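2024-03-11 09:14:02 DEBUG pipeline.ingest accepted 1 chain
2024-03-11 09:14:02 DEBUG pipeline.ingest length=124
2024-03-11 09:14:03 DEBUG pipeline.predict start
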Amino acid sequence: MTNEELERKLAAKRALSLPQDVLLSECDEEFFVAGGPGGQHRNKTESGVRLTHRPTELSVTATERRSQAQNRTAALERLREALAELSFIPRTRRPTRPSRSSQRRRVEEKRRHGQKKAQRREEP
């Protein structure tokens, strides 16, 4: 993971703890015509909302409602979900080796299985 990626993840983690209004102040808000079903009201007004979080460069949109305010609320929820996903830092995996007893059990099981197959081959 590069230094830039780590900084972006840490910025996302910090943004998750912010209240709605402070988080919204860190975002660029853009409104646009959101076409689709919903009639003339939806096709002629700028009810679609696009939020771009400046520190993380994360962008989300909401266009499913006819109301700009409802779309803003939906976009903020999506932004929080995306920030939560972005802020996840996976733990480093340390390779492990099988224990002696597990190796012994595996070899014993293979030996027993081989004996069982050998008994099938023997003529009665």
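2024-03-11 09:14:41 DEBUG pipeline.report The beta strands are 27-32, 48-53, 58-62.
2024-03-11 09:14:41 DEBUG pipeline.predict end
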